[in-house]
Amino acid sequence: MKLTGAEIFIECLKREGVKTVFALPGGVVLKIFDTLHQQKDVEVILTRHEQGAGHMAEGYAKATGKAGVCLVTSGPGMTNVITALADAYMDSVPLVCFSGQVPTNLIGNDAFQEADNVGLSRPCTKYNFLVKDVNDLAGTIKEAFYIATTGRPGPVLVDIPKDVSMAKAEFTYPNAVSIRGYNPTYDGNKWQIKQAAEAIMKAKKPILYVGGGVVFSGASQELLELAEMTQIPVDMTLMGLGVFPGEHPLSMGMLGMHGTYQANMAMHYSDLVIAIGARFDDRVTGKVSEFCPHAKVIHVDIDPTSIRKNIHVDIPIVGDCKTVLRELNQILRATVNGEQKDLRKPWWDQIREWQQAHPLTYQQEKDGPIKPQQVVKRLYELTKDRDPIVATDVGQHQMWAAQYFKLAKPNRWLTSGGLGTMGFGFPAAMGAQAAFRDRLVLCIAGDGSVQMNMQEMATAVVSKLPVKIIILNNGFHGMVRQWQDLFYEGRYASSYLDTTPDFVKLAEAYGAVGLRVKKVGDLDAVLKEALATDKPVIVDVPTYPYENCYPMIPAGGCNHEMILEDPPELKKKQSGSTKVTPEDKDTVLTA
Amino acid sequence: MEHIISVTVENKFGVLSRVAGLFSGRGFNIESLSVAPTLDPSMSQMTIVTSGDERIIEQIVKQLNKLIDVIKVVDLNETEFVSRETAIIKVHTKDQDRAEALRIVDIFRANVIDSTPTTYTIEVSGDPKKIEAIINLLQPLGIKDLVRTGRVAVAREPVRSAAVQAKKVVRE
Q1: CB neighbours of A201 closer than 8 A, spacing ≥ 6?
Q2: Out of A122, A180, A305, closest to residue B71 by CB
Q3: Three-class HEC string of A81-137
Q4: Which residues of B touch A (CB under 8 A)?
Q5: Per-residue pLDDT of chain A (591 residues; tens, 9 = 90+)
Q6: What is chain A's percent helix, strand, coil content, to nearest 5?
Q7: Do residues A183 and B72 make contact, with C-beta atoms less than 8 angstroms apart?
Q8: I need a surface site. Which of A118, A128, A390, A565 has the fewest CB within 10 A?
Q9: Contacts of A307 by beta carbon, 8 Å cutoff, 6+ apart
Q10: Phi/psi at A173 (5° precision)
């Protein structure tokens, strides 16, 4: 029997196990929406902006480990989803985005709502397709899911012209995909793995540096075994949080620009860096020429381009983290004995010393302004038994969430790392909630970034996605203000946001619940009230506006040279001020 | 250092822009790029002349390999190779210059492929130095137009296997 392109599209989604599509209609995709409307297998979540659809698909993918799917129209629909595609590309999120295109006979004519979707998305997708013939549609969709979810995952775009979605063809879904130019390497080179095992046995000051690749590969168990067996401390990247239990004695927490003191010191002074599924991003390496000066480097990554892109690697292993770690563990199991513990005792003594010297710290006075760290810490303590999924936007609140929310398991952490996309958190949280309707999904946000994609509150209310947004509201683009305080002599150029909107009223306007924490003593009660609500909630928490996030390695600085607290002149300037002062407003106006 | 990279790709639309976009997006340098179908019409062969230190060339090769439409990448500098470039040069030739132009064509084993009373169109192949040299010699006559193909290159058969084969021939 012949099916229309739109019907073929849905049949393909069903075969790929897709239950949810995040979508926004438009002229050239109406046939697809009309067909989706007449079936029950694939749920459509109607978003209010295509960027929201893209981030929701990302959140869905990060929480489930499966490909997220979004569907947008041509022209502005496509340009709006670009940010989400670029975000997914940077953070290796498996995503399949379907875009509508003008009919094939109009392509290139500057037709209404026409854009070169394939051209626009080329630099921010792993691969993209323009389907010109309905007979190619099923095979193309199969390839799209295959490419998005294998090797180093990433976003794939399938551009479907209007006439292709309406034309008919016999439907056959291919069982397998074979692309001659695409054969990801899963098994690591055995010789190299043996070399790595030998280096691990000999190392006196080893450190594990693990990232998002371990999450996508599903290798957290293998990582735990490796770390415990060899007693090697674990540094996690921002993308890797949760892949190793945050409260485990071997966990050093996050490393990098706002990483913990012990994580960065251990990295800098180590003699063996074991990088797994991490890519030596500039927020981790700091000054490349002085990065880990004493260390040999083992680098396990499925993407060969990640290896030796930024720093020299001594033992490169191209392969899937899970497969490689299994093999590595097998060798080590036979060779590890008590000697390593003795060999590394001085290293652990040193690490414990670092931990005690500069733990993460902040001052919360009983009647003083609410400190943002306190909010994250209490939120963590109140929810950890419920195994929540935590999304964040980008900025100071993101770094505090990374520091204080010590996740125990992978696929619970939704954050925008590589692209640093403000407005990511809320829709990503909704995507995860759509995948897991019964789970607790939190979004820790800032008052600046949450306003990007606030419109999705309508989606949350209508589609019953009861995400809990906790806004650390300091009236600033806080990270920008922090840099201005530290590096631009405190001139707050375009970083002050004032006290609008009223987030409680805003939530209510959308039909959600709005709550506000007025003083630190009310924090627990209000958070508990929010957590007990079965609707989407915004908890507005006005926080101390001048709190800065430490430790901090200035951009291009060395990893062992962290700023640990406000410099004295900054402390003096801000002592006692709990609100933005008139002078500050002046700097805002005159800057 | 200059490298010649030979890239076998799928012969479909958009592949050239993926390769070109990779170079521009990552700030890699392209000195020349030539592309044409291979014996198998489903594939095309690209010859890319680029430059960079060892780390950059390694990244270029890896990034090219990462492209899904790229089937094979060979950095020809890792082996022996031969390369050629063709130029077509249109030269003004007044009466007294016509003989001189033909002499230069002769010396460089070039060809005149078109002729008018006031111009010669000359085709020349060789390595870039040879092309530069003929251009320098023709310049005083007045070059009206110049197009170059960019280089194409192929790896040499390993000398040893060639020697073995030669031996075989002798024996036979």
Answers
A1: A332, A335, A336, A340
A2: A180
A3: HHHHHHHHHHCCCCEEEEEEECCHHHCCCCCCCCCCHHHHHHHHCCEEEECCCHHHH
A4: 9-10, 14, 17-18, 21, 25, 55, 58-59, 62-63, 65-71
A5: 899 999 999 999 999 999 999 999 999 999 999 999 999 999 999 999 999 999 999 999 999 999 999 999 999 999 999 999 999 999 999 999 999 999 999 999 999 999 999 999 999 999 999 999 999 999 999 999 999 999 999 999 999 999 999 999 999 999 999 999 999 999 999 999 999 999 999 999 999 999 999 999 999 999 999 999 999 999 999 999 999 999 999 999 999 999 999 999 999 999 999 999 999 999 999 899 999 999 999 999 999 999 999 999 999 999 999 999 999 999 999 998 878 888 999 999 999 999 999 999 999 999 999 999 999 999 999 999 999 999 999 999 999 999 999 999 999 999 999 999 999 999 999 999 999 999 999 999 999 999 999 999 999 999 999 999 999 999 999 999 999 999 999 999 999 998 889 999 999 999 999 999 999 999 999 999 999 999 999 999 999 999 999 999 998 899 989 999 999 888 877 765 656 655 565 555 443
A6: 45, 15, 40
A7: no
A8: A565
A9: A299, A301, A313, A316, A318, B62
A10: -100, 125
Ramachandran sector of residue A75 (left: φ over 0; alpha: ψ -120 to 50; beta: rest): left
Instruction: Report the Cα B158 to chain-centroid distance in Å.
Output: 21
Going by the DSSP 8-state scheme, the letter that residue A155 receives in this structure is E
Cis peptide leading into residue A76 (ω within 30°):
no
Which chain A residues are Cβ-neighbours of B56 within 8 angstroms? none
Residue type, B6: S
Angle CA A463–A239–A278, to nearest 5: 145
**Distance of alpha carbon A387 from the chain centroid:** 18
For CA atoms B13, B18, B24, B25, the dihedral sign is positive
Comparing CA positions, the residue from A9, A240, A239 lying closest to residue A141 is A9
Distances from the Cα of B6 to the Cαs of A271, B35, B47, in angstroms? 39, 10, 5
Peptide bond into A316 cis (omega under 30): no
Asked if B68's CB is within 8 angstroms of A126's CB, the reply is yes
Q: Which chain A residues contact residue B52 at CB under 8 A?
A: none
Q: What is this model's ipTM? A: 0.91
Burial A55-91 (b: 16+ CB within 10 A, else e): bbbbbbbbbbebbbbbbbbbbebbbbbbbbbbbbbbb
Radius of gyration of chain A (CA): 25
Asked if the Cβ–Cβ distance from A305 to B62 is below 8 Å, we say yes
Give Cα separations from A146 to A151, A153, A156, B12 (angstroms). Answer: 9, 9, 10, 20
Contact A35, A62 (CB under 8 A): no
Among chain A residues, CA nearest to B10: A181
**Per the structure block, which two tokens stand in for B47?**
């010859």
